[in-house]
Amino acid sequence: MKKITLLFLLVFTLKISSQDHRIPTDTTVVTYHNAMINGKKITYKAQTGTQPVFDANGATKATLFYTYYQRTDVTRSEDRPLIMSFNGGPGSASVWMHIAYTGPKTLKIDDEGNPIQPYGIKDNPYSVLDVADIVFVNPVNTGYSRPVVKKGEKVDKKYFFGVNADARYLADWLNTFVTRNNKWKAPKYIIGESYGGTRVMQLAYELQSRQWMYLNGVIMVSPADYKIIRTESSEDFAINFPYFTAAAWYHKQLPPALQQKDLLEILPESENFAINKLLPALAKGGFIGETEKNSIAEQMAYYSGIDKKVILQQNLEIPNTYFWKELLRNSSKKTIGRLDSRYLGIDRKETGTRPDYSPELVSWLHSFTPAINYYTQNILKFKTDVKYNMFGPVRPWDFSNNNARENLRKAMAENPYLQLLVQSGYYDGATTYSAAKYTMGKIDPSGKLKNRMSFKGYRSGHMMYLRKEDLKKANDDLRAFILKSSKNIGAAKY
């Protein structure tokens, strides 16, 4: 990728300082590149730097690090769709989707997503940059983004770190970004991975209700819905169960009658069992009859690869954490990954109720950390001594008054153009594909908006795009969603 020219513009205010004084609050670095994407040669501009978060009085509260890719070999760039991209955590940088999914560069990894040396990046021929411009945004304390405080003052954590606060200041920031980059006419999309699913549900309403910025699409990648995740309720245990079937099938732990079938043949069976039999049984708690309890345990064993005796000992309630430890305990004696259960780990002891570590996450950090640091400083030419926070300090995170589901429903009801795409990996044990489907149903209990919702599943984990086959498929699905939802379909009315 040949760099054609470099433009450096720096605006810096001396009266305020970021928490780390080495980061200026308003900076732009521009480089020019070309690429082969979706079979065609394109040219594009990469704009990276920092942009302030302004409060209601115009004071600078923080500076956010971002990277903005804009195709240059087109006319009327102000009309091109814009994707505003976030990861999750909360406290995670935008690095994951930036250099592994939708951006013009991707990691040097093998076809299944495992790290290889030397670390680095390569061209991403499947990027959606051919159909949309993309900005990758790092919330406060992620990447190089930092709060801004006056000397002697402390960071206002309540302003940034919570479901509602996060969406509020990010909506303000996006308003500034769209204005500065002349994208008000463009079809607009927000995409969020993991906690980013909650973030974009809330952000859709914030953008429309306070910024009057109307969207064409919300994309949730492996979404974490905190109305259900880790609640250890009957719904939580039952809704996640089909993931057990997927992971057990991958590791060949199911009975022959299931193992010989394709994954997509058996998952509907498991989903039906989870909703129509397991959920009602769990709701009965200790009042379930012994006959029914034994029958349910037997079916759970059949669809999960876990011994019936163990299931009964757990009173039919199998947490995901226990499943990661238990599935291969008596065979290979290894653990399976949390975010991607194709990965294997080795624990100190075979006994226990949860793995010692997440083998997939340490594998990913192997690849991502050197790649983003090299790419930012050497290719994008953003020079700094500040640490790039893959995960930054954002605790405590305020989950109170979490109405993200309902707010997305209101945003869709008020905007007939707005459509939803959900993408999930079948082997994701943290934010399961079946929980993502459940969330879609709960967003709109009336069912009147379901014709504007679509789900796509992939034979990989949380970051489905790390598997080469799914990197192409997921981008193709995203490309099709953008092309369809950005068409002029007539007046925005019912």
Automatic annotation (TrEMBL):
<dbReference type="GO" id="GO:0006508">
    <property type="term" value="P:proteolysis"/>
</dbReference>
<keyword id="KW-0121">Carboxypeptidase</keyword>
<keyword id="KW-0732">Signal</keyword>
<dbReference type="InterPro" id="IPR029058">
    <property type="entry name" value="AB_hydrolase_fold"/>
</dbReference>
<dbReference type="InterPro" id="IPR018202">
    <property type="entry name" value="Ser_caboxypep_ser_AS"/>
</dbReference>
<dbReference type="Pfam" id="PF00450">
    <property type="entry name" value="Peptidase_S10"/>
</dbReference>
<keyword id="KW-0325">Glycoprotein</keyword>
<dbReference type="GO" id="GO:0004185">
    <property type="term" value="F:serine-type carboxypeptidase activity"/>
</dbReference>
<dbReference type="InterPro" id="IPR001563">
    <property type="entry name" value="Peptidase_S10"/>
</dbReference>
<keyword id="KW-0378">Hydrolase</keyword>
<protein>
    <submittedName>
        <fullName>Serine carboxypeptidase</fullName>
    </submittedName>
</protein>
<keyword id="KW-0645">Protease</keyword>
